[in-house]
Design a protein that fits this description.
By secondary structure, the protein is mostly beta strands. The protein has one helix and twelve strands; from the N terminus they run αββββββββββββ. It is 10% helix and 51% strand. Keywords: Lipoprotein, Signal.
């Protein structure tokens, strides 16, 4: 288990070092118990430049202990006043529904998945915001969900420059 944490830390450090156009890139480790339905994941970030647009990505990591082929979740962008400025109902596919083969990139019995949920998101005011993630599987505890997180990255322009 110790070596897995070192590898995860190194991957996060490498990803963070390579992204200078990132407002936030944070992953929250979940307990051995799994993702409790009542536990929302909140990731705070600061917007200073309202002239840019951003893509919002969600990263999920699950183990073979996860009992379903998919995961329903609700991502939200919340402003400093607590108002939801963007919301979606999302579905992540962890396994192929017909073959049962795992999707995503794997390391041992763990698989990582990344989804772009909001593209070209513009913030009208500078200030504090948060990404909220909540599981929507109608199961109190989702075993096998190891971590969940989000990154807010400047949308690439059509000429390839940010």
């Amino acid at each position: 288990m110790y070596y897995k944490r070192i590898i995860l830390f190194m991957m996060a450090l490498f990803a963070f070092a390579c992204q200078n156009d990132t407002l936030v890139d944070q992953t929250v480790s979940l307990s051995e118990q799994g993702w409790l339905q009542k536990n929302k994941i909140l990731i705070d970030f600061q917007v200073t430049d309202t002239s840019k647009s951003y893509d919002v990505r969600v990263a999920l990591r699950q183990s073979n202990e996860y009992p379903y082929y998919n995961l329903y979740f609700v991502p939200k962008i919340i402003n400093a006043d607590g108002f939801v400025i963007k919301r979606a109902f999302a579905e992540a596919f962890f396994y192929d529904a017909k073959t049962g083969k795992p999707k995503g990139s794997g390391l041992g019995d763990m698989y990582s998945h990344q989804y772009t949920l909001f593209k070209g998101l513009k913030f009208t005011r500078p200030g504090k915001y948060a990404v909220s993630l909540e599981q929507y599987m109608r199961t109190d505890t989702l075993k096998g969900i190891i971590s969940a997180g989000a990154s807010i990255i400047e949308t690439p322009t059509s000429d390839g420059q940010n």
